[in-house]
Structure formats: C-alpha cells, structure tokens
Amino acid sequence: MAVALVTGASRGLGRALARGLAEQGWSLVLEARGAEILEDAAGETRAALTGGAQLSVITGDVADAGHRRLLVAAAEALGGLDLVVNNASTLGPTPLPDLVTYPLDGLRRAFEVNVVAPLALVQLAAPLLRRSARPAVLNVTSDAAVEPYPGWGGYGSSKAALDQLSAVLAVEEPTFVVWAVDPGDMRTQMHQDAFPGEDISDRPLPDAVAPGLVRLIESDLPSGRYRAADLAAAPARP
C-alpha cells in the first residue's frame, strides 16, 4: 500500500489532491494548521479511500520541528512513505507589499514555511523514502517563481528557492523522483487574499487542477519542473 504525506491539506489544492490520491488507493498522512477545517477535509478524504487504505490526520504548523517529526512518525505507522507533497505555504503579508517596504519578519516567515520547512520535512522523511520502490517528492511552486509580478517579490522569491532545492535534490538523490509543479492560478482563499475585493471567479477550482497532479504522481515522468496545465496528457504507468 503506497503512503503519501500531504501538507496544507485542509483546503485548496492540498485538499483536492488528497482526495484524488485516496481514490487511487493511497494511504495518507494529512496536515494543516486549522483543526476544524482539516477534520472537514479529512472527512471527504475518508469517504474516498479505497482498497483498504488508511488515513492519519495531524494538526499543526509545518514550520514547527516537533510537528514535522509527528508527521513522519505517522507515515511510518502506516507502513512507510512513498511520496511527500510539500503543498503548505504562506502568501506573506497582505495586501502584497513592494519589496522596498516589505516587512522583513514577514519575509523570514515566508521562507521558513515555503523553503525551510519543505526541506526539513524531506530530510526527516529521507530514511523512509529510501525504503520505497519509487520514492517521490512533489513540491508545489508558482509562476511567481519565474515571473516578476509587482508585489509578489517575497512569495515569488521563496518559490524560486524551492524550485532550486527541488532541482538540486533530484541530482543529489538520484533514486528520488522530485517534481516542482506550478499549479497556475486557482480560485483559492490564498489567491483571493492576494487580490482582496477582486472577482477571481474566472480562475479554475483546485478540483480541476488536482487530477493532473495525480496523473503526474501515477506516471513515469522524470524529475523536473512542470506546469499543471501541461499534465492532462501525462502518460500513466503501466
């Protein structure tokens, strides 16, 4: 039974991806900061579990070292770990500030959550991943990592750092498959926070994006950076 750990699983893309993996028979460790909304998401995921898959749900802050240890221990209790999905992230201060006025404490927090925590989680998970027949890491990035959007300097630079960590990890751990995936604009609370008062109803829902990520996870595609928009035709593994 394959086991995945998904951070930021209470809403948005993490929630939709967890449900998609459950439908494919994955056992899951889900985490997020808000207990009530995480349990609501877990209810959806439990209903989607197939093939005797199991679910573990742990509330906490992925930037906390003790919480990360609990997540890896929960995966081991489910039988091991085959996939880490680093989806949890923070937008940083809102409304989005220009870099010359960017609060440095907010920038430190963005890098702690978006860069340091994903790497720290992979470091802890590495011994379990190395036991897997196909160890994988999926880091959720952004087009803001490669495009100079005004106001997105803090978030975008943290995602650019995550992109580079992903690329180097793939070289240093050649038995791992390491994907950095840009999901594109979505109709999420984070995106709404970035554009307060703006109508974002034209953006796709995470439910429309997650199937492409599931196809990637179930495919033989190699390590690399991918856009979710390009994953609809990802070849499934035989």
Protein described:
The structure is a single chain. This protein is an alpha/beta fold and 238 residues long. The protein has one domain (3-230): 3-Layer(aba) Sandwich (Rossmann fold), CATH 3.40.50.720. Helices cover 43% and strands 14% of the residues. The protein has helices at 12-23, 35-48, 65-77, 104-129, 153-172, 189-194, 206-217, and strands spanning 3-6, 27-32, 55-59, 83-86, 136-140, 177-182, 224-227. It has a seven-stranded parallel beta sheet with strand order 3-2-1-4-5-6-7, sandwiched between helices. β4, α4 and β5 form a beta-alpha-beta unit. The relative contact order is 0.14. The model has no long low-confidence stretch (mean pLDDT 93).
Short characterization:
The protein has 238 residues and is of the alpha/beta class. It has helices spanning 12-23, 35-48, 65-77, 104-129, 153-172, 189-194, 206-217; strands spanning 3-6, 27-32, 55-59, 83-86, 136-140, 177-182, 224-227.
Write the layout of secondary structure elements.
Elements lengths: L2 E4 L5 H12 L3 E6 L2 H14 L6 E5 L5 H13 L5 E4 L17 H26 L6 E5 L12 H20 L4 E6 L6 H6 L11 H12 L6 E4 L11
Parallel strand pairs: 1-2, 1-4, 2-3, 4-5, 5-6, 6-7
Helix pairs in contact: 1-2, 1-7, 3-4, 4-5
